[in-house]
Amino acid sequence: QVQLVESGGGLVQAGGSLRLSCAASGSISEINAMGWYRQAPGKQRELVVIISSGGITTYADSVKGRFTISRDNAKNTVYLHMNSLKPEDTAVYYCNSWGLKVYWGQGTQVTVSS
């Protein structure tokens, strides 16, 4: 099994920045890709960005140029750097991993005030 723990959410003004972290533990070797998703109130969960084990990234159009995913393999941690935040970025952000199974973290709230 893989355990994922997110951190770094909070309240920020529009135009501000936040960095989310996702620490993975457990069966790390089975992970092929990791990603960030988000779910706003009353909306479906949507992809923000995914990064493969080879470093290939796929971003949602809505965050391209503003969000960046990075990883620290030594710490088994993936980061989501969010810049130029907008009120519409307000959501619960979830980290996930893809491998033999899909695992999800508990989520972290990001609130962007106008």
Sum up the structure in keywords.
mainly beta, globular, 11 strands, single chain, about 110 residues, seven-stranded mixed sheet, four-stranded antiparallel sheet
Describe the secondary structure blueprint for this structure:
Blueprint lengths: L1 E6 L2 E4 L4 E9 L6 E7 L6 E7 L4 E3 L7 E6 L4 E6 L8 E8 L3 E3 L3 E6 L1
Parallel strand pairs: 2-11
Antiparallel strand pairs: 1-3, 3-8, 4-5, 4-9, 5-6, 7-8, 9-10, 9-11
Describe this structure in words.
The protein is built from no helices and 11 strands. With 114 residues, the protein is mainly β. Strands 2, 4, 5, 6, 9, 10 and 11 form a 7-stranded mixed sheet that branches. Strands 1-3-8-7 form a 4-stranded antiparallel sheet, with no helix packed on it. Strand 5 (46-52) and strand 6 (57-59) form a beta hairpin. It is globular. The chain starts with a strand and ends with a strand.
The class by helix and strand makeup works out as mainly beta
Beta-strand residue percentage: over 45%
**CA-to-CA gap between the ends?**
40 Å
Number of strands: 11
Q: Could you list the spans in which at least 5 consecutive residues all have pLDDT below 50?
A: none
Work out the helicity level: under 10%
Count of separate DSSP helical elements? 0
Largest sheet: 7 strands, mixed
Shape: globular
Topology as a string of helices (H) and strands (E): EEEEEEEEEEE
Tell me the Rg in angstroms: 13 Å
